[in-house]
Amino acid sequence: MRMIDGLRWISRLATALMILVLSACGGQNGSQEAEGRLQEQSIQGAVLEPVMLFDTLEHDFGTIIEGERVVCYFDYVNEGEADLVITSVEASCGCTTPGWSSEPLKPGEKESLEIIFDTSGYSGVQRKVVTVHSYDSKQFVQLIIRANVINGV
Prior knowledge:
This protein is of the alpha+beta class and 153 residues long. The protein has two domains: 1-47; 52-150, Immunoglobulin-like (Sandwich). It contains one helix and eight strands, in the order H-E-E-E-E-E-E-E-E. The strands form two sheets. The protein has a four-stranded antiparallel beta sheet, with no helix packed on it. Strand 7 and strand 8 form a beta hairpin. The longest helix is centred in the first third of the chain and has 46 residues, at 2-47. The N and C termini lie far apart (110 Å). Mean pLDDT is 81; it is low at 20-31.
């Protein structure tokens, strides 16, 4: 009688293992199909995104006199396939004022972002960061301005 109980136990164990293997195989196919659909949607979404590309990410004013207000422009283009909108621009300092268009930029179009640096009250080597947020899939772009501010004589 013990042998019969042992055989039943082995039979049940074999059945449970077979069910486990079959369900795992079916689950993998479903996962692979879902992953394939996600990749396809991701590829399609990438084609329809804006892409902000700047000509340069840094500008050096060189040596300037304290109290001057200097201006530079960062040119960019929408290299993507959808309209690009700048949602916000943040300067690391109140002495730096960014100016930009809030209008959608069509694919292939170019635009400029203006940065005004007021040197009043500053001296020595200065480095300021301007962070640009947009509909581009990158989280942000950082632009840097530099200057060596000297006291006027």
